C-alpha cells in the first residue's frame, strides 16, 4: 500500500465448528478434524440433506437473560469473538481512543433465526403480534451495532453484505481505514448464524448442498476432489483487531500478520455461476495493491466450496493469474472441515491463513481422495504440511459476483 500506513493484525477471536478459541480452532484445523455432522434438531427429519457444521455455543453461558432478549445468535457470536480479539490484542475501551475506533462486519443473512421465528409465529402459530425486538434482532447491521455500543466505539460502523465474500470485504475495507489514517483501531470480521429450517430448505432448493457421505458424514464436503458434490452450510464468526504497524510496535503488541494487499472485483456476468475472469481480476487487484509479483505468493487459502463448478472455476482463475507458478503454489480449502460459513467464511479462513503463516504449517484440504483432471494443482491433500510461507492469499468469492482477496505477509 504505497504512501499509506502499514496495517497489521494484533488480535483475533473466533466462534466456529472447530472450536470457540483461536487455539482450539487451530489445533483441530491442522489435525484435519471435521466439524461437519448430522443435525439434531426438531426439524431434522424434514430435511433432505441433514448435515451442517454447527458451532457448539450456548448463549446462556455468556449473556444475561436481559441481553439475550435483544441478541440474535449472530450478534452473540460477534460480541463473543470481538471480546476475544480485543483481549488477544491487549486492548480495552480505556486504552483506545474510541472515537477513532470503528467496526466493520460482514454477514450474509444477519439475524436469520429472529426472522424465521417471527414468520413462524405469524404463519404457523397464527399469532397476531411478534416480539417487540424482532426487527432490531433481525436487521443485518445489528451485530456491528452491538459491538459499537458495548465498547462505545464512535468511529465508522458499517455492515457489508456481499454473500460469501462479506467478511473478506469488511476486513479489506477496514484495513483502508487504518492505512489512510482515518482510524487508530478497527474491529473487523464476519458473523453468520443461518442454520434454521427455512434457510436450509432454501439451500436445498438451490441444489448446491453436498450429498451426505453415508459412510462418513463428516467427510461430505470434498473440495477439489472428483467426487465432490456441493457445499456444507456452517455457522460461526471471526473478528480481528487491525492497527498500524507503528502503533503496534509502539505499544509492544504481538503482530500476528501484516495485511499486505486487498483487492475486490465483480464478475458482472451471472448471479450464481462464477467467472474465471472476475475471480482473476480480484486476485490481480490484491497483487497490484500489495505491489507483489505472482511468484511471491507461496500459499492460497482457496474459496474452495466443494461445488463442481466453483472449484474448477477457481482453479482456472488461479492458473490465469499465476501462470506457471500456479503449479508451485500450495492451496487448501479449509471448508472441508468447518463448512461454508457464508458471510463469515472469509474471516474464519483469514484466521486459518494467519495461523498457517505463524506456524509455517499449511492446513489440509480434507477428503480429497479422487484427483480431478480439471483441478490439477497442489491442494495440500488430507494432511497438514510444513512449508516456508512469506506471503499468503485468502480468496473469497460469492453469489452476485463480488470477490474479495486479502494478502497476508508473515510478521
UniProtKB/TrEMBL annotation:
Q: Which reaction does it catalyse?
A: a fatty acyl-[ACP] + malonyl-[ACP] + H(+) = a 3-oxoacyl-[ACP] + holo-[ACP] + CO2; (9Z)-hexadecenoyl-[ACP] + malonyl-[ACP] + H(+) = 3-oxo-(11Z)-octadecenoyl-[ACP] + holo-[ACP] + CO2
Q: Taking the first listed entry, what is the main subcellular location of this protein, grouped into a coarse class?
A: membrane
Pfam families according to UniProt: ketoacyl-synt (PF00109), Ketoacyl-synt_C (PF02801)
Active-site residues, as the UniProt record annotates them: 164
Please state every residue range assigned to the domain named Ketosynthase family 3 (KS3): 4-410
Keywords associated with the record = Acyltransferase, Cell inner membrane, Cell membrane, Fatty acid biosynthesis, Fatty acid metabolism, Lipid biosynthesis, Lipid metabolism, Membrane, Nodulation, Transferase, Transmembrane, Transmembrane helix
Query: Which is one Gene Ontology cellular component term of this protein?
Result: plasma membrane
| Keyword flag Transmembrane | yes
**Pathway involvement of the protein, from the record:** Lipid metabolism; fatty acid biosynthesis
- GO MF annotation, one: 3-oxoacyl-[acyl-carrier-protein] synthase activity
Q: What is its EC number?
A: 2.3.1.179
Gene Ontology BP annotations: fatty acid biosynthetic process
Give, as one word, the top-level EC class: transferase
The record's subcellular location field reads:
Cell inner membrane
Which Gene3D superfamilies does the entry link to?
A: 3.40.47.10
Q: Which PANTHER family match?
A: 3-OXOACYL-[ACYL-CARRIER-PROTEIN] SYNTHASE, POLYKETIDE SYNTHASE-RELATED
Briefly, what is this protein's role?
A: Proposed to synthesize NOD factor fatty acyl chain. Involved in the synthesis of a highly unsaturated fatty acid moiety, which forms part of a lipo-oligosaccharide that is responsible for host specificity.
* Entry's family note: Belongs to the thiolase-like superfamily. Beta-ketoacyl-ACP synthases family.
Know the name of this protein?
A: 3-oxoacyl-[acyl-carrier-protein] synthase 2
Native species of this protein?
Methylovorus glucosotrophus (strain SIP3-4)
Amino acid at each position: 500500500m504505497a504512501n499509506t500506513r502499514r496495517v497489521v493484525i494484533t488480535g483475533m477471536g473466533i466462534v466456529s465448528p472447530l472450536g470457540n478459541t483461536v487455539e482450539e480452532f487451530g489445533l483441530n484445523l491442522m489435525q484435519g478434524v471435521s466439524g461437519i455432522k448430522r443435525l439434531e434438531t426438531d426439524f431434522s427429519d424434514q430435511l433432505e440433506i441433514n448435515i451442517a457444521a454447527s458451532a457448539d455455543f450456548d448463549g446462556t453461558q455468556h449473556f444475561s437473560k436481559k441481553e439475550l432478549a435483544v441478541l440474535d445468535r449472530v450478534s452473540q457470536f460477534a460480541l463473543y469473538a470481538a471480546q476475544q480479539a480485543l483481549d488477544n490484542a491487549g486492548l480495552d475501551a480505556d486504552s483506545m481512543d474510541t472515537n477513532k475506533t470503528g467496526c466493520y462486519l460482514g454477514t450474509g443473512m444477519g439475524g436469520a433465526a429472529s426472522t424465521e421465528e417471527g414468520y413462524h409465529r405469524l404463519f404457523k402459530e397464527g399469532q397476531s403480534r411478534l416480539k417487540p425486538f424482532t426487527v432490531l434482532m433481525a436487521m443485518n447491521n445489528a451485530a456491528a451495532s452491538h459491538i459499537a455500543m458495548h465498547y462505545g466505539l464512535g468511529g465508522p460502523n458499517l455492515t457489508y453484505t456481499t454473500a460469501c465474500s462479506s467478511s473478506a470485504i469488511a476486513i479489506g475495507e477496514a484495513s483502508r481505514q487504518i492505512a489512510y489514517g482515518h482510524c487508530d483501531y478497527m474491529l473487523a470480521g464476519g458473523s453468520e448464524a443461518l442454520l434454521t429450517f427455512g434457510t436450509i430448505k432454501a439451500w436445498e432448493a438451490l441444489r448446491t448442498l453436498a450429498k451426505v457421505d453415508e459412510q462418513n458424514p463428516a467427510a461430505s464436503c470434498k473440495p477439489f476432489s472428483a467426487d465432490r458434490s456441493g457445499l456444507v452450510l456452517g455457522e460461526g464468526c471471526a473478528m480481528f483487531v487491525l492497527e498500524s504497524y507503528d502503533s503496534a510496535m509502539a505499544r509492544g503488541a504481538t503482530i500476528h500478520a501484516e495485511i499486505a494487499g486487498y483487492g475486490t472485483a465483480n464478475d458482472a456476468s451471472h448471479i450464481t455461476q462464477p467467472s474465471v475472469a472476475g475471480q482473476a481480476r480480484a486476485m490481480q487487484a490484491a497483487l497490484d495493491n500489495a505491489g507483489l509479483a505472482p511468484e511471491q505468493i507461496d500459499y492460497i487459502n482457496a474459496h474452495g466450496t466443494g461445488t463442481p463448478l466453483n472449484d474448477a472455476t477457481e482453479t482456472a482463475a488461479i492458473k490465469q493469474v499465476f501462470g506457471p507458478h500456479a503449479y508451485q503454489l500450495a492451496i487448501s480449502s479449509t471448508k472441508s472441515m468447518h463448512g461454508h460459513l457464508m458471510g463469515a467464511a472469509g474471516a474464519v479462513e483469514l484466521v486459518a491463513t494467519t495461523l498457517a503463516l505463524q506456524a509455517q504449517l499449511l492446513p489440509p484440504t480434507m477428503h480429497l481422495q479422487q484427483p480431478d483432471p480439471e483441478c490439477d494443482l497442489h491442494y495440500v491433500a488430507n494432511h497438514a504440511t510444513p512449508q516456508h510461507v512469506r506471503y499468503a492469499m485468502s480468496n473469497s468469492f460469492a453469489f452476485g459476483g463480488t470477490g474479495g482477496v486479502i494478502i497476508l505477509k508473515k510478521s
